[in-house]
Amino acid sequence: MKNAIDWLVSRDEIINKPVALMHASHRGDDMLDQLRIVLSTVSARFCQELFLRFPLMKMAPDDIQRKLCEPANRESVSGFLADFAAFSAR
Do strands 19-23 and 46-53 pair parallel, antiparallel, or not at all (unpaired)? Predict the structure, then answer.
């Protein structure tokens, strides 16, 4: 991830593009804090308020699919994507 960001910083691909975070773990809060700092530095359009997290670590692909297809989780994903689309349209 760090190398990808390093490459993006020296180019125009991320500079004014909308960015939000999704996370598939129940851990990693320190890493997320650091990533938020970096993303807010490299993109003027990073929205820290948009964030979606599902604890999917160590789950098999079929279990992940079942979890994400649960109505409440589908609603969370749909809401996140709608909010990101609205943010991106600004």
Answer: parallel
Bridge partners of 23, per DSSP, are 53
Query: Which of 37, 52, 53, 44 has its CA nearest to residue 19?
Result: 44
Residue 39 has a CB neighbour count (10 Å cut-off) of 19
DSSP 20: E
Residue partners of 28: CB distance under 8 A and separation at least 6: none
pTM: 0.84
- Percent of the chain exceeding pLDDT 90 equals 70
pLDDT for the residue 14: 82
